[in-house]
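Got a spare moment? Tell me how you read both lines of this record:
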Amino acid sequence: MLVLVCYDVSTETKSGRRRLRRVAKVCESTGQRVQKSVFECQVTLAEFESLERRLLAEVNLAEDCLRLYRIPETRGAEVREHGVFKAVDFDGPLVL
């Protein structure tokens, strides 16, 4: 399943800046950054649940915001991208 992870971590304090780096590292280990605080992740249900647990362990829910969107793999679902960033096509052929 395709999952969008979006977060807004308060960086007003030193601990907030550390949380931001840790949240980004968790996301980078699972998916690809498509905007500064938005990641696309192609995961199984078990991987999704693990990702959510790992992220919840890093954020401070009193100060930060975390949103996870599960994108259904239905016919007709699409992503339209514009601009300089070109995302990796997870379903496309692997070229080495």
Notes: The mean pLDDT is 87. The first helix runs from residue 14 to 28. Residues 1 and 44 are 6 Å apart (CA to CA). Helices lie at 14-28, 45-58.
